[in-house]
Amino acid sequence: MRRFATIAGSAALATAIVLSAGIAVQAAWADPPQSTAGAEQIVAIRRLTESQYRHAIADAFGADVRIEGRFEPERREAGLLAIGSAQLSITPAGFEQYFRLADLIAGQVTAPERRARLAACQPAAETARDDACARQIVSRVGEALFRRPLTEAESAARVQTAAAGAEHTGDFYAGVALALKSLLVAPEFLFRMERAEPDPAAPGQYRLTGSTKAERLSFLFWDAPPDAELRRAAASGELHTAQGLRRQLARLAASPRLQQGGRAFFTDMLQLEHFDGLTKDSKAYPKFNQALADSAREQTLRTTVDMLFVQKRDYRELFTSNSTFINRHLAALYRVPFNSKGDWAAFTFPKDAERSGIITEATFLSLFAHPAASSPTRRGVKLHEIFMCEPTPDPPADVDFSKVQALETGTVRTRLLAHMENEGCAACHRVSDPVGLALEHFDGVGQRRTLENGQRIDVEAEINGVKFSAAPGLGLYLRQQQKIPACLVRNVYGYGVGRAPDERDEDYLADQTEAFASDGYRVPHMMVRIASSPEFFKVKLPARAKPATKVAAAATHEGGLQ
Amino acid sequence: MSALRRLLLLAAASLAAPAPAMAAWTRAFAIEWYEPAMYYGAQSGVTEPGTDCPAGTNPEPDWIKVLTEAGYTREQALWLRNPANPTRSPVHGQNQMAFRGAGRANVYIDPTSTPDGGLVGVTGTIGEGLDLDGDPNTGFVGPAGERGVDNAFYRTLGCWKTFRGPPRLSSGALQNNDAMRDGAWTVVVVVSGRGDDPMNDDDVTVGFYPSGDKLVKDAMGGVAADYTFRIRPDRKLEALFKARSVNGRIQSSRAEEEVWLRDPGAARDLQLLKARIDLSLKPDGSLSGYVGGYRPWKPVYDGYVRARGPVIEALTWVRLPDVFYALRRNADYSPTGPTGEKTHISFALRVDAVPAFVVPPDAKGTARPISYKKQAPPSGQPDSTADRLPFNVVDGIVIPRGAKAVSQPDSALLPPSTTGAGGAQ
């Protein structure tokens, strides 16, 4: 095989890739021009999440492309990874991973059995450069990956890379593979670069570019890059018109891919990445293993997506419904028969099972518990944080946990009461623990129980004078809490725009929450309302440090970008 | 009679008619371990002398001696046993070991072509199992003192390395149950009764069925409880027992003429005649006990031949023809009557099962202990879950497909250094 004939040759080719990527980096990260009048500039940069990366590759090359590798850790900010993604860079080790993935993907898509799918053109000879055909491939794939048409400089750099590779190896497709790798490691692919441009309808004001609007929409609704139709609408300016935007929103919301977008959003909001490092004590919970963890995660996503995006039911039923989906592993955990010949089946828990919504599924109950025990406190803290947007401060560094960790005595309620003799702890526990104590009929992996250490478990609880009992009582209590739909609205908005809402957004979010309620708490409708509102595309300067010499100029920019 | 009156009478009659027979209670289980019931009479280990086998587990035969007694020269015997011999597969053994009968006959398929070496059997008086013949004066005394335990299978093979050891520790049970636990096959048990109390019920039915759903191991390495298994109807493998429970002990109320189970050993299919059960519902929800009956002894031998004679002999320290002779010698039951040929041997399985959900073949509702044979695929239709060997066994040895299981010529039985270039190639 002539590809990579020598080590020296490989190094030279790799350098060519880095150089071409470097061109793109330089273009992308260049400081905004000091004189902003009439200039397009970057207003936010968000690293693609793993699922977005996977969906982008599937869209560009086909769903059968294998993506085997580790991704950089993500960061949660203001309750969402999507907001944290706006503060992430790529480490050298992470770049190596992306480079390895690029190599793996480029190798697959240029393999003889698949290369015909890259473009309509055929090279004049597979053993030599063919710039015209290479340009077609780079143009088509580049637009899919960069989510906008490539600039001439971006395209020319990759065509040159393909030509150099083909000349060096005597293989047209080896050269194309190098060009594709260059695209796959480019910041324009790995990061969503949100750009603003002067708004012709409002002199002195800025608006998001059409392609940036398209990205926000498609990643919110589909967790994937804009498709060709959305890119067309962006390029034609349709997304800047109310009618054009409405048409695209209707299409996005009606697509089966909305379920994919819903999955991604709730994967983020429900903090399902915690499954990655979840361990349980084998002796305490012998049924818990990786298969069960994977099943629990899937159960929660299936249940949520089916209820909210397929059946379009009231969001608050997420806390009261006893309908779900199970597989064989989960049926064993819940101690119910699996009456299906398939892998998954719809299932309704009997009333005496005390299951009430996703907070009584194995996901919530196992993620937010200790390795060998349940944890009303963790469950309460996470319930407030995830569903009510009310984070709890970290405990003091010198807190004494010895009384709550004596697992072999009493019930967790008695242990917590002993722990709360410390007034410094009591303030937070009074808020977090009641909802968690109502879930105590479920152990640290979600199996139902009524006794702990031989003692009957008390699942009575009271918050703000409201008394309830057990999970169904908690579910009904949560259903009445206005904070819960308000928190979802806040999260959807933050997820879509990639930043934490601040006080300037409060009125807008209140209006959206009211509309959500008026509409019967239908999530897809709420998403459409948010995405069709001007606030969804509002331009705000990123709060990043500027060199001292540029402070004055930057301040000028900020004044103009409202 | 007016139409209305007739209607009322019909309604009354329908109310008075007996309801369809429905189980008042049902328990279901998945067998997590089962093995031939072989009482171990030593205090520790798996090979020590004990009351069962005073000389301990039967030692490995001297294979050089076996071969030279079969007519091979010592040099040939040494070369055949030499691991460097290219005809001795590290996985499947030395095929030539088969050809040690009279006139180089294959002893695996023609065991009487070599003399009976005399497999040493159990000489103790304690044995596990069931009283199959109803005669307390025949058989072993059970560990708890019960008399008349019929288990000639144990008497025959109880000192063989494959079977000897405490419960769950004999090499054969470990190997076979590991395979089952790793998903090779599954057997489920459905128990139901018509009374109100499972622990004490005069009318209990117990069914054993295959399932295509694999056992699942828990994080501690055991078989996880509470999984669901769908019965896979089988034209042969099904065992139904009528029984009664007393204080949770479920014992046959009659002998079943013929039942079939999945054998945990090499025989695969296990026919039991005059079959009985003695199972107990445990406080932790599990089920343990015995299933027994008279099994045909020839398939036991054939199973080991099919499992590759040279491998069985080398790994389990036995001369297979000796197993043939011993089983034939100790067979104690004839289906055709007391004077008929003893084709069967008394036998019992020790069974442990965990609580499970068992559903019928259509996956709807809960399985009942009835026959599902009519729902089995027509004969000739491939059984998708049947386990098949990944290599080609003919007459007890592994050979390329299409080849014949034949003895090598004498010229190939010596190493190249002694036979020249034309030696063992």
From TrEMBL, chain A:
Record InterPro entries: DUF1585, DUF1587, DUF1588, DUF1592, DUF1595
Residues in DUF1595 domain copies: 133-194
Domain of life: Bacteria
Keyword Signal included in the entry's annotation: yes
Domain DUF1587: 46-109
Alphabetical keyword list: Signal
Record-annotated DUF1585 domain positions: 464-536
DUF1592 domain segment(s): 212-335
Keyword Signal in record: yes
Domain DUF1588: 355-450
Signal peptide: 1-30
UniProt protein name: DUF1592 domain-containing protein
Originating species: Phenylobacterium kunshanense
TrEMBL record, chain B:
Species assigned in the record: Phenylobacterium kunshanense
Keyword annotations: Signal
Region Disordered: start-end pairs: 364-388, 405-425
Taxon lineage: Bacteria, Pseudomonadati, Pseudomonadota, Alphaproteobacteria, Caulobacterales
Signal peptide: 1-23
Name of the protein in its database record: Uncharacterized protein
